[in-house]
Design goal:
The complex is a heterodimer of chains A (about 110) and B (about 120). Chain A has about 110 residues and is an all-beta fold. Chain A has no helices and eleven strands. In chain A, the strands form two sheets. In chain A, strands 2, 4, 5, 9, 10 and 11 form a six-stranded mixed beta sheet that branches. A five-stranded antiparallel beta sheet of chain A has the order 1-3-8-7-6, with no helix packed on it. In chain A, about 35% of the residues are buried. The chains are: A mainly beta (about 110), B mainly beta (about 120).
Chain lengths: ~110, ~120
């Protein structure tokens, strides 16, 4: 079967750096997405990786290793507003999106 | 504001009621989706419409009935639901269907409680 694994919950301190990991086993690979979802709000698109390597967007970076079936989302200079759930999703060979259950990130002052 | 608007945001209904969820997208997209989001579970794709034609129905019970009158509007009609159907229902849209590889944009969801 197809599976996306990410930690259920993580805690980090304001101003620090946190890395949220995502591992996947899917039928083929056509890209990996990260979304941010604040409580009670819409998931919003953060990043897309289809080739190996690091994609940087301001305080957020996303890394992909296709050979290892692994990605991470790196958040720097954490702010209280970064408290949210982070969803990892992989597009398989049939272009179906396979979703992880999300990682709830708690930022403490 | 994501460009995808859902109403109502909250709905409580009895198991014998009939209600509908509404979604409208202002992004000019031609594909729309319904997802179910339950606590601590992955998003579950329910239905996909591309160019107003249903292209996917992931073994969803018939008590959920989608309707897509045009490329900007999507409804989910609800009838004789069960308590386990209580969840957040997310509407989404994209330019091109899932095989386009384009990013999906979500609405804020409709919280459904079945009592």
């Amino acid at each position: 079967g197809q599976n996306i694994d990410q930690p259920t919950e993580m805690t980090a301190t304001e101003g620090a750096i946190v890395q949220i990991n995502c591992t996947y086993q899917t039928s083929g690979f056509n890209g990996l997405f990260w979304y941010q979802q604040h409580a009670g709000e819409a998931p919003t698109f953060l990043s897309y990786n289809v080739l190996d390597g690091l994609e940087e967007k301001g305080r957020f970076s996303s890394f992909l290793s296709r050979s290892k079936g692994y990605s991470y989302l790196l958040l720097k200079e954490l702010q209280m507003k970064d408290s949210a759930s982070y969803l990892c999703a992989v597009r398989d060979s049939n272009y179906q999106l396979i979703w992880g259950a999300g990682t709830k990130l708690i930022i403490k002052p | 504001e994501t460009g995808v608007t859902q109403t109502p945001r909250h709905l409580v209904m009895g198991m014998t009621n009939k209600k509908s969820l509404k979604c409208e997208q202002h992004l000019g997209h031609n594909a729309m989706y319904w997802y179910k989001q339950s606590a601590k579970k992955p998003l579950e794709l329910m239905f996909v419409y591309s160019l107003e034609e249903r292209v996917e129905n992931n073994s969803v019970p018939s008590r959920f009935s989608p309707e897509c009158p045009n490329s900007s509007h999507l409804f989910l009609h609800l009838h004789t639901l069960q308590p386990e159907d209580s969840a957040l229902y997310l509407c989404a849209s994209s330019q091109g269907g899932q095989d386009s590889g384009n990013t999906i944009y979500f609405g804020e969801g409709s919280w459904l409680t079945v009592v």
